[in-house]
Fold this sequence. Notes:
Blueprint: H1 2-9, H2 11-23, H3 29-40, H4 60-73, H5 82-87
Helix pairs in contact: 1-2
Amino acid sequence: MVEYNASFIEPEAVRKIREARDQAVEVPEEQFMSGINQIFGKPLVYGERPKEMKMHKVDLNKALNEYQEIQKSHEKPKGIAYKDWAKMSLE
Length: 91
């Protein structure tokens, strides 16, 4: 879809991208890794995947109710300040 939309704006660029993709060569993983080793003088080391961060559950209904209460008590209709957000308990 991106290529289709871009073809109306930059048809020449889209044509070049398509040609480059058609000329791309698939390289086996062993050959790719040996090329990395040859170029950089050391093999590519796969590190350990980062551990998933702990997710915090938030009661959205409670947070929205607190937000509405703050809005009601706030004198300025523009919105609330950062300090009001800091007072909200999201857990």
